[in-house]
Amino acid sequence: MRAVIAEDSVLLRIGLVKVLEMAGFEVAAETGDAESLLRAVEEHRPDLALVDVRMPPGFTDEGVRAALMIRQQWPDTAVLLLSQYVEERYAADLLATQTGGIGYLLKQRVADVEEFVDALKRVAAGGTALDPQVVAQLLLRRGGPDPLERLTPREREVLALMAEGRSNAGIAAELVVSESAVAKHINNIFAKLDLPIADGDHRRVLAVLRFLDGGPA
């Protein structure tokens, strides 16, 4: 798999290159700003773009806007955003356009190389990876009645882990329960959120979207 990296911190960028290469990625290009990132994606058409949220010249949301453009113009390129701080609205913005091949992690997660590489590969394969702190902020932001109020505390835990991109096996390991118990919780979540009958992966994405925006999936 090929990747491009957009990160204005030279030291972090060097570290990211090494991590991706160790994980089996070919780093086709590395850059420090959004314009160069877009040119690199157009030229190399990578499987994954690893993008800093805030980059020159304004250090606001340049990376997010570039990521949205990448997903619109080159939908086969997955995007994993890295941020210094929790800014959950950016994750919601990305997931509002497409539900696969999207990730949003805090930069501190890079230190746990094994989990970070797992997130990279999951996003590159079309899955999602949301930082646990982003998920926690989304929960705190909620207010008022919504379909999620029907869920039990355990079902909300399961849904939060689904939003992070965990598999059934990963959820079971985190909660120290059986995979069959996780499957039962997920089926209850689908039913309580009134999700239409569809293949399992599609319903899973719909559940995560409802979790993120509180509106109809």
UniProtKB/TrEMBL annotation:
Pfam families in the cross-refs: GerE, Response_reg
Keyword set, alphabetical order: DNA-binding, Phosphoprotein, Transcription, Transcription regulation
Modification 4-aspartylphosphate occurs at: D52
CDD domains according to UniProt: LuxR_C_like, REC_NarL-like
PROSITE patterns noted in UniProt: HTH_LUXR_2 (PS50043), RESPONSE_REGULATORY (PS50110)
Protein biosynthesis among keywords: no
Domain of life: Bacteria
Domain HTH luxR-type: 144-215
Domain Response regulatory, residue spans: 2-122
The keyword Transcription regulation appears for this protein: yes
Family matches, as InterPro entries: CheY-like_superfamily, NreC/VraR/RcsB-like_REC, Sig_transdc_resp-reg_receiver, Tscrpt_reg_LuxR_C, WalR-like
PANTHER family xref list: TRANSCRIPTIONAL REGULATORY PROTEIN NARL-RELATED (PTHR43214:SF24), TWO-COMPONENT RESPONSE REGULATOR (PTHR43214)
Protein name according to UniProt: Response regulator
Taxonomic source organism: Streptomyces mauvecolor
Lineage: Bacteria, Bacillati, Actinomycetota, Actinomycetes, Kitasatosporales
